[in-house]
Write a structure and sequence with these properties.
16-stranded mixed sheet; 9% helix; 3-stranded antiparallel sheet; single chain; mainly beta; 535 residues; globular
Length: 535
């Protein structure tokens, strides 16, 4: 209701799954043949800012009915009246998704010590009817530039045909008990794996296709009085009355690239287990994942006409050409990228000792300690619900061409340790005490310009800042009683007081290069077990 991003929100999902596996063993071979299929019937009833989104410079401006910006959404298709109950109960453009797969593998016991498991999987993803294509989409002029800052599939070639292709994923694993007694085991594997995507993204592509909803984005001249339209049914009429029809003549389109593919990775792992001494076990493991297809978000309705500062943030393009097509408020674009990777290295030592006599009782002890170092890099984290948010809030120097940087899921350092014991009093009673500790590097985060968003006219509000070397490397102006000298003193103190920023003077900050403090967690579990009878 009152949340402006979900004034109308009614998502419904019906899911059916069908799986079947058949296993057949003959000689040294254990064959498995199977299929797993998921069928989704979705209704994505989500309208951003249908109630309207009014902004004012200050409280005085609000009391005087003098907004600085008015935004909102309304229906343009006569089949869908601009009424909340109608849109809530009958959202436009329901869609269907099918994720189908078949697979086969053979576990080959080549010897009592060695097993190898080759396999293959075929994944096929498809939607029912593709979304309606805005008639103007393919008429948008080419984004010609002698020095382009970003690239994308030209508007004239976009066809709203995506998914609907099979992916063949071979994989192989092995397990080698070198001495035949589990004292040294080498194991690992490699293969291709197809992932998923939030179906909300498909919902945006179906809903914001340019033929159902129009956009309001009206910026009244300073001092213009526009009474608040309390009822959203009259939001468009109010804006047209004071700003003219052009204030509500645009629409947003969310476009998925031709032949878009679900996220796909190539993952390999290698591990060794060593058992020695009296109950000790050491495990060393490494895993590497290479991105084959990941996601990338852009705003492609920006004319690629850029100018640059001569000093300071010289790499940040300032777009001066306006929109490619005036009928679109925004054209957000989801495509694939092949950039990205992650790896984890783990070492773990554990020990279990049973039946230690303590008087007439017995004590079982166990402990383990593991350390993992992990790095993950990507272009876009894909952690947000809408195309717009995924683009706007992805920190970058050039938002339409983001650089490979640390992911939101970058692990870095993690320590996990356990310590536990069980005292067996008799056949009927046992008491156990266990400790679990986890310590992990803090979450990665970024610093961005805080200027109200969009400082370079690039439609993003998470631009990575340039860190000035000294006071001559940044132009500051007096702001009332807050002088340029005071501003520099505060900014310089901020930079000097931060371990990361102080190393980036004369350079840009990087996405997710800073981290919050370490997180430590210690859990205790005390349990007594009563056996009420031998059964």
């Amino acid at each position: 209701g009152t949340w402006r991003e979900a004034s109308i929100y009614n998502m419904k999902q019906q899911t059916a799954e069908l799986s079947d596996n058949v296993t057949y063993t003959t000689g040294v071979n254990k064959f498995t043949f199977g299929t797993h299929n998921e069928f989704y019937n979705l209704t994505y009833g989500f309208i951003n800012s249908w109630n309207g989104r009014w902004e004012y410079k200050d409280v005085k401006g609000f009391q005087a009915d003098q907004p600085t910006r008015i935004r909102g959404a309304f229906t343009t298709d006569p089949k869908y009246p601009n009424d909340r109950n109608a849109l809530y109960n009958n959202p436009p453009n329901p869609f269907k998704v099918a994720l189908l797969s078949v697979y086969a593998q053979d576990e080959i016991t080549a010897s009592p010590k060695f097993k190898v498991t080759p396999g293959i999987r075929v994944d096929y993803s498809a939607v029912g009817n593709q979304p309606t294509t805005d008639p103007a989409l393919n008429t948008v002029p080419a984004n010609n530039s002698t020095n382009p800052t970003y690239t994308n599939t030209p508007f004239s070639q976009l066809n709203n045909k995506w998914l609907g292709q099979a992916t063949i994923s071979p994989r192989i694993g092995f397990n080698w008990d070198i001495n035949g007694n589990q004292s040294v085991v080498l194991r690992g594997g490699t293969g291709i794996f197809v992932g998923r995507m939030p179906f909300a993204w498909l919902g945006y592509a179906y809903t914001l296709n340019g033929t159902v909803y129009g956009n309001i984005d009206y910026k009244p001249a300073s001092g213009t009085t526009v009474p608040l339209a309390v009822n959203p049914l009259y939001l468009k009429d109010t804006v047209n009355k004071y700003g003219g029809p052009s204030a509500s003549a645009t629409r947003e389109v969310d476009i998925i690239d031709n032949n878009f593919k679900l996220p796909t990775i190539w993952r390999s792992s290698l591990a060794a287990d060593f058992k020695f001494g009296n109950g000790y076990k050491l495990t060393l493991e490494g895993m590497y994942t290479k991105t084959l297809y990941d996601v990338k978000f852009q705003q492609i309705n920006i004319k690629d006409q850029a100018e640059y500062y001569s000093t300071g943030p010289t790499q940040s393009p300032v777009y001066t050409g306006g929109k490619l097509y005036g009928g679109y408020s925004n054209a957000y674009f989801l495509s694939n990228t092949t950039e990205g990777y992650r790896y984890n290295l783990t070492a773990q030592l554990s020990k279990t000792t049973n039946n230690i006599r303590v008087g007439t009782q017995f004590l079982n002890l166990n402990w383990s300690a593991a350390y993992t170092y992990g790095v993950s890099k990507d272009l876009s984290n894909g952690i947000r619900n809408s195309f717009q948010s995924n683009f706007e809030v992805n920190p970058a120097i050039v938002p339409n061409s983001p650089q490979l940087a640390y992911s939101n899921f970058d692990l870095r350092d993690r320590i996990v340790a356990t310590l536990g014991g069980t005292l067996v009093w008799n056949q009927m009673n046992a008491t156990s005490l266990n400790f679990f500790y986890a310590g992990q590097s803090g979450s990665p985060y970024s610093v961005v310009y805080a200027s109200g968003g969009n400082p370079f006219n690039n439609a993003a509000n998470a631009n990575l800042p340039y860190i000035p070397k000294d006071q001559n490397d940044i132009k500051l102006i007096d702001n009332g009683s807050y002088t340029a000298a005071q501003q520099w003193a505060d900014l310089n103190a901020l930079i000097s007081g931060d371990k990361y920023l102080s190393t980036r003077r004369g350079q840009y900050a990087e996405r997710n290069a800073l981290r919050t403090p370490w997180n430590h967690e210690l859990d205790l579990k005390l349990m007594h077990e009563f056996r009420l009878s031998k059964k």
